[in-house]
Design goal:
The chain is mainly alpha-helical. The protein has one domain: Serine Threonine Protein Phosphatase 5, Tetratricopeptide repeat (Alpha Horseshoe), CATH 1.25.40. Helix content is 79%, strand content 0%. The chain is flat.
Length: 75
Amino acid sequence: MQENIADSYLSLDKDSLARLWAYKAIDLPNAYNPTEGKILGYTTLGRSFTYVNTDSAIYYIDKAINLAEQSKRKI
């Protein structure tokens, strides 16, 4: 749920609030699928930094990709 709030704020161009909720999504795992919440949180952070800090954007997107690849191997 936190990652959805973060994504909504990002759509409204409220990057600082999007980042706040994305960090919450990463720190407070979703009870159903904690990895999915973290992946979405990192993706939102990456998108929020795309135009202001490309190094941070790449860092967070890489974390999301690595988590997705790790979770795929576990299935």
